[in-house]
Amino acid sequence: MSSSGLLMPRGGAGRLVLPPGEAARRVIGEVLADLHSGDHRGVVVDSPPGAGKSTLVVRAAGELAEAGEPLIVIAQTNEQVDDLIDRLAQAKPELPIGRLSANDYTATDRIKNYSTVRVAAKVADLGGSSVIIGTAAKWALVPEGRWPWAIVDEAYQMRSDALLRVAGRFDRALFVGDPGQLDPFSTVETERWTGLTWDPMQSAVAALLRHNPELPVHRLPVSWRLPASAAPVVAEAFYPFTGFSAGTTAAQRSLSFTAAGFGGGAVDEALEMAAATGWALYELPARHTLRTDGEAAAACARLALRVLERGAVAVSERSPGGAPVTADRIAVGAAHRDQVAAIRAQLGAAGDGITVDTANRLQGREYDVVIVLHPLSGRRDATAFHLEAGRLCVLVSRHRHACVVVARAGISELLDAHPSTEPVHLNVPVRFPDGWEANQALLGHVARHRDMNSTAVSLPSPGIQ
Amino acid sequence: MTSISMGTSRTTAERLATIRGGAKPKRHNARTIAALTRNPGCARRAVLDTAGVDKQRLAAYIDFPARFGQSGFAIARGNAFEAQVKASGAAELVKLLRERLGLPIPEVAYDDLETVTGREKETAEVRYARSRALLLRAAAGEDGAGTLFDHPLLGLDVAGQRVYLEPDLIAFQHEGRFHVVEIKSFAVVDGQADPGKVSAAAIQSAVYVLAMRQMLAEAGHDPEIVAHDVVLVCPRDFSNQPTAVLVDVRKQLAVLRRQLGRMTKVEEMLAVLPPNLCFDLAPDADGVPTRAPEALVDALQTVDARYAPDCLSVCELAYFCRAEARGCTAALGTSAREELGGIERVETALGLAKGELTPADDQAEAATLLRNAARLRAEVLVAAAGAAG
Amino acid sequence: MSTLTALARAEAVAVGQAQRITTVRHLHVADRPLVFIPLSMAGEANAPLAALVGTVPDDPRLLVVPQPRNRDQRFGFAAELAEVLLPYLDSFRGVTEAVAANRGKEVRYRYVDAPQVLVPNSAGIGFVRMFGRSTRFRRTDGDYPVQPSVPLLGQWLTFLADRAEHPGSGMLLAMTEALGLHWATGQSALEDAHLAALLAWIDPADGLSGADAAVVAEDPLRWPPAGPATDPTFDNEMLAPAMAAYQEAVGSGDEVRRSRARGVLEEAVRSQLGPTWELMWRGVSLLRELPVGSRVPGRWAEDRDVFSTFTLYVDGGGYPQPRRDGAVNAAQRLHRLERALQSYAVQRAYDDPLVMADHRLTGEAFVGEVTLADAHRIDDSGKRRVLRPRIQVTTGDVVLVTAGAVLHSPSRPGQKARVVFVTPDPASGRTDVVLELSGGLGRSLSPAPGSVPEVGDRLCYTTLSDSFMPPGEFPSREETPWTHGGPPKAYEEPVEPSVDDAREEWS
Amino acid sequence: MEALERRIDALRAEIRRSVVARDTARTKGLRAELRIAEQEWEQAISDLAEEAGDPPPAAAGRSSAGSLLPVREQVHHALTLLSVPAAPKLVAEVHAAFFGAAAAGGLAAGKLTHLRRDEKRSFGTAPYARPYYLCAALTAEHLAPARGLVAVSTWPLERRIVGPLSPRVDFLTAAVRVAERAGTVPAGSSTLARLVWRFASNIPGALDIAGRPDTVDPVTVIRAAEAERVVHADADRAHRAAAAERARRQLDQVDQLFGNTLRTLPGKVTRRGGAVSRGNPTVQEKTA
């Protein structure tokens, strides 16, 4: 446990003793102090959504490299690798950076622009780089070499076995990630390893801490992404024991529309609600549907397009004068790939540039406005997949301004009738929050942002029993 | 329906007594309370359980006997193991608690709460009072207030009724903190046990934790002094030696609180049921229920069930509900129903797939999917038959 | 469950009989499988009660443990089982074949056939695993010595149980799962775990619908459960009295009485095992009737490889498998299982158009006709000119692949097809997909004959690929990193049977 | 004969069905029928055996089971060795370890439960007619018979009374006694070694590192058990003495030996909680 825990607001905002900027700075200072002290083989930093994880990684990498400590960075996807290189190269224009890549990787434009960045498939070809960055999958193929330091980014998305394969490459490591997001998974179903501290199917951080419980765990206390309207809600539902607060005030962020809503009806009402309060529930009549519920997909698309049509403008600490919410600042999130395909089809050419993706692939991303197709919408019964707290957490924590949840009525009843028959395994730490509880908590909040006059209430609602 | 005005003049308890009829109520215990969490969406089960109807007898009488039953071997083994762990002042348990939870050497006091006065049969009230007195004394942190309490009798309010629970367990207290110890005879082999059995044990233990917390809270103590970690004692590997594992039952506690809270909604459920609804199994002189099976079947059909194949392993009435659900996609399992586009009936799904039925508005998407599937299936099977022939 | 399988279940309900969900058989059925039906004692941790075992339908061997709580009898059962199983395993250690290894630089040998053990259901596999666990660490000396065959049996049972976890392996199969892989019944997957009910749907008795036949099959008095758990009323009403009578007869010292009581006991358990024995062989012949998939022999060859390797290990006096996998072992095994699972799924789809249809329905594959073909197209945009033929495939299937995706065709392994354009035609409901081909075209700038599909060809393209995936690298056990507890200490991963194992307290 | 066997099979099947159906009346009737059929079958079998000239099956076990006298002696031996009230199972194990399980009929644990009732009846008709009686241990709180314990009447009341610490103290005392005796037996049997080991494995510091039955050292066991007993002894002794004093004042001869079962004693009124009055009292069936 680190002393920074003392600064943590318990159960949400409101009790922060320090201004957010100062609280965050202190934690980062403690993290760096722990790194430099050399007292620990590993340091873990839990970072809630938008709490400045990348900033921390870039800063730690820069400081370690400048101190002359050869360093590797292990990320989980190629996109994350490119993101990190982009930010690090900007922050440290002199720093020689190596990008370890697969043979068939072609550097993206944003990487090509940096003269300090070299790309190669072998470590030997990256000599002279102070920092070498690659994916965990790529590092697993590096048979030798040992660096004094590693930074493992998105460590909660990494599986324990992936860490096992790369851990021989470093003496000490900084592990950074968001514990509230989706756990890694395997296509193989087996209980062979459940209960083992080294169960390869758990997250890398879980394995690390079960073997090294004495390692310091820091928590970044402030979300710079989530607005004041969302941080307490997300913190309470998904980070019940640690919490975090918003780095900005309600006054610093606002969303408005330049074009008036003509005949948009329920869609416009939902958007107005979202602009005013940060949340909206766009509720469709109760019905059991296919996963690819056409009506719901259409609603998601309509909402996203309407944000563009109405010329939404976002005012924030970054652009106090307001910036237009362009297509690349809008995302639609869903649970399944076929839902994504259905929504994309509904968006058509008008929605070019709007991101539509599954929760898994939205992890770590950020937008101004996010439309969420609720994973339980239209379902007759919930499965562990649909109830997973991490999935919902990812979906409702991507936005800087507003989140509109699209759902069919009846989710609350569905949750009530959900049987609790989960098997229990010995010696497996219980994961919190429970998906059921988290779903109830979030739904409870969002339901207050449902305009009773909106949605297609004129249609008869069959009701779900 | 017609009952709403009637319902107001009768208390829920009377109403439930009518439903039960002349038969004695089936008693709740930790297992039946735990069972409430298994299919909370089923109104049929909720009504029968709340009224205390003997579902197994009912199911058998209408010719859909449940296949439950416990082997005498399993019962004997369970009792023998429990006796062994509790023998000589629970010597084996003391050893495990010393090893697992660092119980200090002086903490060995053992109070047997099963007998109070040594009589063959003691009333629940007497036993409950003694359990309560001793546990509260321990909660108050009195000197020499005891460490191990065997067979405490606990009480819990279920649907507005007090239910007594007799755990086969030992409540154990140290430094003002209570733990529930649950002794089970399934094996822990190399640190793993049957997850279904652990799950059942966890939810039963949670019932006891809840009951103890309720008792303490009523007496003005902090309920949280009953730990959410229960001590599960099982035989290790293939031997008879006990081993102890801590099981975190926080999730189970949340589930129980939720479902017990829901049970008060039984009034709403009863309000829409016929006022004369009755599942009377009272027997005549020959031991045969006086009501005809057909009448009971009729009564059952007035209460909606929510059948899923999982019910077969947990609910005594499942075979009846399954027969009733014949031809429903639900009977094929929840995932099959989902894959069939949530269409209720099998023949509808097939009709839509073959294009023989015109889909209703809300079936259009499912119909497209089913037609596609049927087309592919037919195409491949015809080709395969052609190749074979 | 896929929509196609769900639809087949719906059809089964309507027709009253199980429906095929594959066009071929996806597993190997041995010429001489060993059928093994274990029963265990209720309430005990995997205590064998009885078993019926054998390779010939009309010659099952009955093994009975008159007092399952008795330790000596339990290992006596193990020794008896070893008497059947070990010679069966040995019987495959005759003829070997040479296999090229290490890119043809080396040769290794494998047996031309391998054992196949069939149990009724997945709980039967669980029994094999647990019985392997309880026997492989037994010692042949010291306290409670067992016969040398017992720990050996334990190693083999553990080996088989591990193989059963391996997707696509056929060395230890559960009959319910083998049948369920090929037929969809009109009941739920949960009910399919009941062997008698499952077979009642696949092969209902004359004049009965599958549903009615299954209800009959569920009556434990007519069709006793296929084990390892016995019916509780059987335990209480038949087995308990028979055991007690046997116990008493033993106590009486009267040999005649003892053997009579044993006869009663054997009759009782035989009555529980016999019906399942018949069902097992009916299942075997139903499976044999299916035409075998073309990639099945390849997977069986892998089984034979693994069997050959393990015989060498056992012959060399290898230690019994550890109780639990160590950190490195666990990661390696997960990697192997994931690879096997993926390749098994792809192979089944490639072998079987009905399985591929699942992927067509979800848009991961499509079947269509080649409507345009430019076999000689040269791509000269790069450093050197390369042959990149293009074809257009027109399909009525749902197409969800997007431009840039790389597809494969089961009938043209080794050739990649990159999606160039996808053009749906809403009017006809058909979609044109333009593909650019690479690989498998020969070495020159003009394609080898037959290497490019021609107009009119009907082809399947899919995102599934069965190309070789190189295995991952792992640290050695001694190099287990500090993040995973460091190198295991000797006592954490005991590989040798310890005195502790012999000393376990028994009832 | 075959018809009889078929009938037995059919009856068993019917019983299984009626058990599942919870049809108790029918099950009872069927069981009675089955018993008769089985007796007929037994008879037929022995008739057959006699016809064939086989000797009639030995009736071993029956003859000795009729008398409880030897069992009584055995229990007395074992309890005297242990010197503390003990559960029937332990009594049986101690007897088997030291005196062998030779006695015909054995010391089946179940039998001992009946024994206590037998003894009480005997004492009631002719008090002190026997040199000792197997009697109850008494709970310190209510002076009621303690569940599942047997004691000897010649012991002082203090020893027969059990308070909360007594089970542990008695367990440790028994461990000492058993280890002492085991130390005097040359090359003790493996049953004895296992008994000592079972005690030792629940006492801190009583086992060596190997922890095996064949390496248990009685002296170590005694030392470890004594060390722990000292921790609890004073409190336990005081508690027992106070309760014994109360028993001598309040109980008659019979109750002093067999426990008070008729009333709750004055001075120890059980508090009746307010929460007890509602609902139907339930004694839950055992969950295995």
UniProtKB/TrEMBL annotation, chain A:
Keywords: ATP-binding, Helicase, Hydrolase, Nucleotide-binding. The keyword Aminoacyl-tRNA synthetase does not apply. GO terms for molecular function: helicase activity. Residues 325-408 form the DNA2/NAM7 helicase-like C-terminal domain. InterPro entries: Coronavir_polyprotein_1ab, DNA2/NAM7-like_C, P-loop_NTPase. It comes from the Bacteria. This is Helicase. It comes from Plantactinospora mayteni.
Automatic annotation (TrEMBL), chain B:
Residues 1-11 have a biased composition (Polar residues). It comes from the Bacteria. Residues 1-28 are annotated as: Disordered. This is Secreted protein. It comes from Plantactinospora mayteni.
Automatic annotation (TrEMBL), chain C:
Residues 467-507 are annotated as: Disordered. It comes from the Bacteria. This is Uncharacterized protein.
